[in-house]
Amino acid sequence: MRRSMKLAAVVLSGSLGIASLAACGAKSTDTASSGSGSSGGSALKVGMAYDIGGRGDQSFNDSAAKGLDDAKAQLGVDVAEQEAKTGEAEADKETRLSTLVSKGYNPIIAVGFVYQPAVEKVAKENPNVKFAIIDSSSNTQPSNVTSLTFSEQEGSYLAGVAAALKTKTKHVGFIGGVQSELIKKFEAGYKAGVASVDSKIQVETTYLSTPPDFSGFNDPGKGKEAAQGQLDKGADIIYSAAGSSGSGAIEAVSQKDGAWAIGVDADQAKQPALQKYKDHILTSMVKNVNVAVFQYIKAAKDGNPLTGVKNFDLKSDGVSLATTGGFIGDFKAKLDDATTAITSGATKVPTAPQN
């Protein structure tokens, strides 16, 4: 998910990114595995600290994990992964990163803006270790930290265009996992895309939790309840930027004739746990976290590490719309026009919701 994103409040550590913090049943494990083609201890050792939800969230964390898996398979790096814990303290994040440092992992990738304070602290204490953080940047970030950011608002704009062209009720919905500056970018782009087609279309907005409660990123039950509420009000298309909570929203939509879900972060119609709902997923706003992770690791392995803020926007294929199912094929030309308008600079997509 673009331009450099600054935390509205660093003390609020949380992420999705798309997405994906969370609550119930989050894992707390530390696993390590050797990269193919490594000899002895000579391979680059890459550590990854996941956001709450971790592997298996069918969304943000899984996309990051794919980038790590690709680097392991194609570049022969050694990897270690650590999962977040539900309700953990800031010190737990710092300990997780410090543990990877102590085991010789360099670089270390933190998945989600929830890690911003911890990354800054641990990076300052270990200036010879390279860190990357996904979905966050800060003026106080030390030089050994690279920000991997995305233009989520641009992909969400296209999702809004698709929703506006598909709706029959002229009433659509947006569900955000946690009411944060990051997720507001998804909301802003989506609403702007809808309005670009028909400003009279009503957009329902529901957030599942508010900081410091980040459970909205990992509670499918909350997602399902919120989606049902929007369906009951007349919405027939619902876009969820809510991590694994979005799976609950997709389930609710699948039970309503004529309704469509829009997925986020990954092509959710292709996710194993969501296959049974694929005929109800209109499209997904894909955020190519895997590409950013792989590029970061490859640059480090090649001895030319990425530095500063590396943004992945629509023009660079950092975000896109999935076409699985062919459900948006009827208005491909209009989506192409909207894409061209954004990539050419003719359309400036807002990063904050407009009233």
UniProtKB/TrEMBL annotation:
Residues 1-22 form the signal peptide. It holds the Pfam family Bmp. It comes from the Bacteria. The keyword Transferase does not apply. It is a lipid-anchor. SUPFAM superfamilies: Periplasmic binding protein-like I. Residues 47-322 form the ABC transporter substrate-binding protein PnrA-like domain. It is found in: Cell membrane. PROSITE patterns: PROKAR_LIPOPROTEIN. The keyword Lipoprotein applies. Keywords: Cell membrane, Lipoprotein, Membrane, Signal. Belongs to the BMP lipoprotein family. This is BMP family ABC transporter substrate-binding protein. It comes from Kitasatospora cystarginea.
